[in-house]
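Hypothesis: this fold can be encoded by more than one sequence.
Test: take the structure tokens below, design a sequence, compare later.
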């Protein structure tokens, strides 16, 4: 079954590529050594994967990945599999040999989480220090394996994520304390990245770009000032102010986007950047693209590009800024075709793409992750990534 599934995926990828070539007059840009056509490059720097776990228990549950957290356990020895670092070194070598050049790494964290293998306790200085030490080793191993760059992503969870109900409201004394806790984690990990010798950018909060309320009580050119969630918008604005004051903006994408399929919400999310960043914008943006029930990745990309151009304040350069596609479905020929077409249609610069280990054609229907490393890199590269 597994072999048949892989053969089906390769065949489907070939059919999508062949259809795209026929639509363009059948011109072949280049050839693989096996005779397959290669699409024109659409991402300048290739791509790779979000590499956040070193295994999976194979039970197809939401928590199947929990005990295999890469960053938290990098210094440990797994009772069944052996030293985590040695496992990761082999996986990194394999993935690089399969053609990947980029990685998204990251830290999942929470304020006083239950015991587990993924979540770092951001309230515990010892746990934060261990995460920083582990990150230094992981970056050294990624560099040794030959990876060109890393997008390092902060994954706040539940009570440390300002978009979630568990995060304290702005009227609570705990609101500022929780923002401070988040900031201390950034302060602990960013110097490790800067000293690693690895080309990197930082996503300060995964899918952390908030939106405005789009209230019709205000003129449209003033709506950006009024958050849909005050605690979310104020938290990320505070983090941004601190980050820029301490480190500048050159090495960060700010807060990455979840690209909505609701046009009003998406426009409000783009427009609200004026509130969050206060005229000091990231020079590169990162966003996650998944097909929805109404819009596929092509539609979402075009809408995002349209709003970035249409909402562009003077001097912001949103119309020309390059993007990193931080997440998309794993080894998915439909997603790859849709995004490649969208990039060509808009002319938007995309530096690279890192797929998320969720195979929507896979046998496991987990809504989060259903593929274990080492990961493949066949379909996306065949579409110019």
């Amino acid at each position: 079954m597994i072999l048949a599934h892989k053969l089906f995926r390769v065949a489907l990828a070939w059919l999508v590529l062949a259809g795209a070539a026929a639509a363009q007059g059948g011109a072949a840009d280049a050839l693989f050594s096996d005779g397959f056509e290669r699409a024109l490059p659409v991402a300048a720097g290739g791509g790779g994967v979000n590499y956040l776990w070193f295994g999976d228990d194979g039970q197809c549950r939401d928590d199947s990945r929990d005990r295999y957290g890469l960053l938290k356990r990098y210094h440990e020895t797994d009772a069944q599999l052996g030293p985590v670092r040695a496992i990761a070194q082999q996986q990194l070598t394999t993935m690089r040999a399969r053609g990947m050049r980029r990685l998204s790494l990251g830290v999942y964290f929470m304020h006083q989480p239950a015991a587990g293998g993924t979540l770092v306790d951001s309230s515990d200085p010892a746990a934060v220090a261990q995460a920083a030490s582990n990150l230094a080793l992981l970056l050294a191993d990624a560099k040794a394996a030959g990876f060109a760059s890393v997008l390092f992503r902060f994954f706040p969870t539940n009570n440390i994520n300002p978009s979630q109900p568990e995060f304290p409201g702005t009227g609570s004394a705990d609101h500022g304390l929780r923002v401070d806790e988040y900031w201390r984690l950034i302060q602990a990990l960013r110097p490790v990245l800067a000293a690693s010798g690895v080309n990197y950018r930082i996503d300060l909060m995964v899918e952390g770009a908030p939106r405005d309320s789009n209230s019709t009580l205000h003129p449209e050119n003033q709506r950006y000032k009024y958050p849909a969630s005050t605690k979310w918008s104020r938290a990320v604005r505070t983090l941004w102010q601190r980050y820029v004051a301490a480190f500048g903006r050159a090495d960060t994408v700010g807060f990455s986007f979840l690209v909505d399929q609701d046009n009003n919400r998406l426009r409000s999310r783009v427009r609200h950047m004026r509130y969050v960043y206060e005229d000091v914008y990231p020079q590169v943006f990162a966003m996650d693209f998944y097909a929805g029930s109404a819009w596929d990745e092509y539609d979402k990309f075009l809408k995002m590009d349209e709003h970035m151009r249409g909402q562009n304040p003077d001097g912001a350069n949103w119309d020309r800024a390059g993007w990193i596609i931080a997440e998309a479905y794993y080894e998915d020929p439909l997603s790859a075709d849709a995004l490649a077409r969208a990039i060509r249609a808009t002319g938007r610069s995309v530096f690279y793409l890192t797929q998320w280990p969720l195979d929507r054609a896979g046998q496991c229907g987990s809504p989060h992750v259903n593929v274990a490393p080492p990961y493949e890199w066949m379909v996306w590269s065949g579409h110019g990534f």
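The first helix runs from residue 2 to 23. Residues 1-8, 10-38 have pLDDT under 50 and may be disordered.
Hypothesis status: open.
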